[in-house]
Amino acid sequence: MRKNMEKWNLTFRAINVLVGVILGLSIVYFIKEEFNLSILLGALTGTVILTVTNIMKALLKRDRTPDTDERTEKNMLKFYLFSSHIFIGLLFIALCISSFLGIEEILTVYLWIIIIAYICFSGIGAFIVSRR
User: What is the pTM of this model?
Assistant: First the structure.
């Protein structure tokens, strides 16, 4: 039973996110009397995309082989460990250099660029590591 439910884990998470969004929107509606339909439509779109992806993945897999083995998981964990430490180190070095140069205020846009670059590079690197 548990093994059968594990393959629908992504759908369960998507539905829980949708319930959370509806709960959050209802709380905002009762407090501020505003209802933002775009948030609901975005969450609904994400839920539909994740559910369709999970249905395709669960129903099209025919063999009994696991998606990943222990070596792949170990390599992924090592990659995430090293990449996160390298990016945090680079962020601290960049902040130290900017403070030594006399820059006292840093726009949050620059910090978001670093965070989004980390997410992109770690995602691409994880894809490469998982395929090896």
Answer: 0.49
